[in-house]
Amino acid sequence: MNRRELTANISALIQQMIAEGEQPILDYVLRSTEEQQRLFKAGLSSCDGITKKSRHQSVRAADIYLWNPVTKKVDWQWDPAKAEYWHTVWVEKYGGDPMVVLKNGKVDYPHFQ
Fold first, then answer.
1. What is the CATH number of the domain that holds 7?
2. Which of 18, 22, 32, 51 is most buried, taking the most CB atoms under 10 A from its CB?
């Protein structure tokens, strides 16, 4: 998916999320090399930003977090069932890739590419 397709599809996904009662927050659409290296060193990405670039570095991925109106805080880690639902929508309706597994073995629920 190129940058324009990602922008259109992420926008449509966010509109659908809102229509279904979610309060999505778009984050990390463009990531610098320095930020990518920091995340890699912290074990939060399998891409080092130089040898293996992240799709965030070329605006071909976005992270979406959800606002929790009960706690009045951002849910940084998604509920797995909710993540499974939205990633299924992303793949089947918008042609996105399946969920990404990080080098630490955890699933990157907020990541859409």
1. 3.30.1380.10
2. 22
